[in-house]
Amino acid sequence: MQNNPNDMSDAAFPQTRLEALRRAVDEGIPRPLSWRLAQLEGLLRFVADHEAAMLDALQADLGRCPTEARLVDILMVRSEIQLMLRNLRKWLRPRRVHTPLAAQPGTSWIQQEPFGLALILGAWNYPFQQILIPLAGALAAGNAAVVKLSEVAPQSASLMARHLEQYVDPQAVIVIEGGPESASRLLAFRFDKIFFTGQSRVGRLVLAAAAANLTPATLELGGKNPAIVAVDSPLEVTARRIAWGRFMNAGQLCVAPDYLLAPEPLRLPLIEALKQAITRFYGPDPRRSESFGRIVNRRHFARLLALMREGRIAIGGQTDEDDLYIAPTVITDLPGDAAILEEEIFGPILPVVGYTEIEEALAFVRKRPKPLALYLFTGDRRLQQRVIQGISSGSVVVNDVLVNQIVPGLPFGGIGNSGMGSFHGHYTFDAFSHAKAVVRRSMHADLDLRYPPFTALKDRLLQWLLSR
Ligand code: NAD
Fold it and tell me: Fewest CB atoms less than 10 Å from the CB: which of 28, 185, 207, 454?
């Protein structure tokens, strides 16, 4: 663990409040529907009151243009919370299930109960969304929550640290700033649910800490998302969609297409089409474009520069450390073992790799850890099915990128190296709820059948009953 001077001192760490929150949860404070709805309304009010400040913070932390920021960090948060407000009553309703003859007379149902005290650890790339959506889910499900903001987006973190608690029940929510050290101190504490967004490497540490208390964890991690382009895909629109997904937020997006696999004869024409798309989006000098973001800090800037050393830069490549600017960059002619083909890039660089047969492209993906998202560009239904059924990934989008995130009925989450569990829509509520099984029996009929001593007749009858 690195020592971070900005991390919390002993004096600032809210140990006493944490212990009080733990005690309150253990004493079983009821959190009725009205309380939950009030918390969600409070979060909506936070967004409404601070929208302009949120946009400013995103501009300061990430150079994010207001349109993109409004879409992803404000509108998405708002629509997720509104969906919860509309549906919470229904989600909380006990769900009856069939009670077999052997448990009759009786009634069986599933009842959602809160885990208790949730810990939410956020990443920096969508600093509001990654805190506010899980927090809304935690409160909608009736939990208390401790939120640890990311130190890497300090303006966004500071805004939430100063104001968020005033919009929710301060007896149920603690908002903490700080870095890895604060996170580690929190992870030593007993929580009933952990929701983590971040790197796979840190996800392992979080899961190990969760294991000590057998705390269930949702891990929203990163990874390398392939964009596989088949030979029949129309170049212009394919390139435009991939470039949009790769260069949004200067590539600092967990679901960005991380590398592109193209049929060898189309590799250079596709790169040409990418060039046209980039110019159309950001003009001849993307540095002057208000729609193109910046790298979050010097550490990430240096990491990205190192990834640009191998291969041939086909588009972009210009950098300016003082401005934390890296141009939208496409790299090709890479050695098979290039670091950029192994590590998650998380920046505005797209490596393009050629393949001869589609099998080669599929094997390339399968050889790597399971991606968060897989993008396939083809009109060939058989190939679509082969990829959907044959390659494991958190999600698949055919002929586009990212749009799975705005379909509220779809769970969003990874598998294996890219995470476990999911959220969005009612899955966010589910992530913070325990589906409790309940059976209520009548005390009247009490057949002797199941009680010892057993006889051959009881044995036959029991088998018959249990098969109904
Ligand atoms: P990170 O793992 O470095 O940090 C995430 C959180 O963990 C922060 O709050 C940080 O303070 C804390 N942390 C960092 N190091 C720690 C340590 N050693 N011990 C305990 N806590 C520690 O991730 P990041 O750099 O903030 O975010 C980028 C990563 O997040 C990328 O890999 C990206 O793909 C992923 N991500 C995933 C999703 C998703 O929904 N799947 C969304 C956004 C980002």
Answer: 28
Exposure of 96 by Cβ count < 10 A (0-12 exposed, 13-18 middle, 19+ buried)? exposed
CATH of 226-413, one of 3.20.20.70, 3.40.50.150, 3.40.50.300, 3.40.309.10: 3.40.309.10
Q: How far apart, in Å, are the Cα atoms of 87 and each of 34, 80, 137, 140, 395?
A: 13, 11, 12, 10, 24
Centroid of ligand 1 to alpha carbon of 104 (angstroms): 50
Give the pLDDT confidence score for residue 3 in this predicted structure: 46
User: How is residue 233 written in tokens?
Assistant: 């895909």
CA of 454 to the centre of ligand 1 (A): 58
Residue of minimum CA distance from atom 23 in ligand 1:
198
Per CATH, which fold does 15-221+420-435 belong to?
Aldehyde Dehydrogenase; Chain A, domain 1 (3.40.605)
pTM of the predicted model as reported, rounded to 2 decimal places: 0.95
Enter the tokens of residue 3.
């020592």
Q: What percent of the chain has pLDDT over 70?
A: 98
